[in-house]
Amino acid sequence: DCQMLLNQLKEITGIQDSAFLHAALKAANGDLMEAVTFLTEEHAQEPAQDAAAAEPSAWEGSAVGKQLPQNVTTALTPNSRADVRAADAFRPLESPKAQAAERDAAERAQEAHAAENKNRSKRKRCEVWGENPKQNDWRRVGDWPVGMKNIGNTCWFSAVIQSLFQLPEFRRLVLGYSLPQNVLESCCSRTGKRNIAFMQELQCLFALMLGTRRKFVDPSAALELLRDAFRSAEEQQQDVSEFTHKLLDWLEDAFQLAVNVKSPGDKSENPMVQLFYGTFLTEGVHEGNTFSKIETFGQYPLQVNGYRNLNECLEGAMVEGELDEATASQSVKYGQERWFTKLPPVLTFELSRFEFNQSLGQPEKIHTKLEFPQTIYMDRYLYCSKELIQMKREEMKRLKEKMVILQQKLERYMKYGSGPARFPLPDMLQYVLEFIAAKPAVAVSSAQGSQTTLPQSQAKPRVLDVLSQPNGVLERKDTRAEDAAFFLANSSPQQKLSTPLQPPGSPAETSEGPAPHVVSEEELNLVRTCLQRWRNEIEQDVQDLKESIARTNLSIEQMYCDPLLQQVPYRLHAVLVHEGQANAGHYWAYIYDQPRKSWLKYNDISVTESSWEELERDSFGGLKNASAYCLMYISDKVSRFVAGTG
Fold this sequence. Notes:
By secondary structure, the chain is an alpha+beta fold. It is built from 26 helices and 18 strands. Helix 12 packs antiparallel against helix 13. One of its GO terms (cellular component) is nucleus.
């Protein structure tokens, strides 16, 4: 309609005066390229009054069902030739009419591109690039992807649309969408008209994203249609999952209008269904009764809490409860398994990072770390792999039980003791070895018998006392008494008169650290030999346990590395990131650019080159308030076509 063309003129020329643009459009009889020429002439003036009063052209009515204007069909610019080649991966999904429309659009795109270059040389700086005089800040460089203007808490829209736009097949389907005139005339429902109008706006938005000379586009027209469909007010941010569900529903319904021409009610021919939707089989036991059902899915929801990585999330979603028949009839009354029976070319996972806090009465974001790979093999979740996977799950269960037992044994060694403070047993034995090897206060040699560091006459009673003690150590009070007597007996008269009587220090005071008061060589050797042998035995036990744990853990990690389970790879295409809390925050997207072989970060109007390392930091979670909220994988076959290697 007229408003759509006005929006396009605003985007292409940068002029915001609606009345001026409307007059130029009428003067050009609805020809968008001619209107652009009028507006970008070196001395462009307001169109004459008689031209402004000309009859409305056909373009002022609904543009649904008509071809896009020439400049808009730059949706297939020279850089976009790959779109046609990549679309071959999905050729069974499209009709001959769609293929013809694609070829026609490509031809008209070249003409439009040449016209655009010709007209660009005539533009004035401030007219073309808006009020900002720094045109280089707004000018698009080559075929670098364009950003999307945030018109007020609409970063969620940009993140999702950019992720979809960078799917060549989805882009081709949107740009090639058209309906026969009779279908347009027969569409009377409010919902149907809204879906068609949204498709039309999305079509124009995609065309501008490919053909614009500016660094970003304004999605206002498409957003206006979407706002009415959401429950929340305009000021509030939208949930990515909610919006994506709504978007795919609208697109599915819009394409169904075209499918109904040949196969009324048959959604299997709907290209949106073929591109984004799959099926899974649920088998289980409930209250002793078995059940089985097939369901369709678009975005597959996954819980984050309690899992370390994406495969663990999927495994948790695929298996619930216990399916063993022996236990199902007793303690466990519910259990089920899910198996994918059909995977879509574009596989989207919703990561549930929000939960409701009952005590606070409000939602909270889950910030725990969750890793995901650049390539995920889906074989282990397919129904055709059921028998092999069930065997591996049983083996996995046995290995995990073994792991628990091994870790418990290791913990008994590493946290030894009966009190609240516990220590590694090898360390405790080492400490005792160090204690007995410390310099004693009095050393006794079993070979010398009565020889000590004291004079012979004074040493004999002490040795006898030592040997008479049950533990071979003289009590401290006797030692002090004898030391005092020895001091008095050996002091000179002058010392006795001039020095006050003071008992000597205790062994604890005189030694540098804790040490045995008295220990014989025989005792020392015996204790040292035993402790060293026990410590070596225990260290070997600990080493054996650690090696067993490592081997078991490796078996668990490699359980599904079977080549038979690596036949259905999916490559990571886009990661939608949310930073903030449950009730507020910001969205952006990381999207893999196949031609450039690199990750790009799409953050509203900004599109910058990124890396897997940056993506990990922002998306895995656990470090800050940013984490992945939605993962979009594409079939490896599609990925190869996009890259031009298929």
